[in-house]
């Protein structure tokens, strides 16, 4: 049964579905960022420091360590950004779900009203038919 709210419910449902997809994408990005951060920490622990050798070996080791620390900072920022995106997506999804439920409720209430009106009309028609039938019976 269609009501004046049916198209709005459809639009709100589509917006809610889109928000769910955005949240899933944000969660996937967060997982990727977390994996990258873990891998960068693992890479830091894999770095070995020379105990002896030339100054260039020490400098190369120090540069590698500095580079790994920069990568860890970058990945930490990525994780923070991804967490923020997940939070924003959750809030948007929540708002879209509330809007969808509002219009769905209005649609259901409109349907109840239409059904009630149909029942009342049907009852009046049945009463009229019964009166006509009773009138015909009395004439015989």
Write up this protein.
By secondary structure, the chain is an all-alpha fold. The mean pLDDT is 92. It has one domain. The longest helix has 85 residues.
* Biggest sheet overview: none
- Helical run tally: 2
Strand content: under 5%
N-to-C order of helices and strands: HH
Task: Please summarize what this structure is.
The chain is mainly alpha-helical and 140 residues long. It has 2 helices and no strands. The two termini are 44 Å apart.
Topology:
Layout: H1 6-46, H2 55-139
List keywords for this structure.
140 residues; mainly alpha; 90% helix; rod-shaped
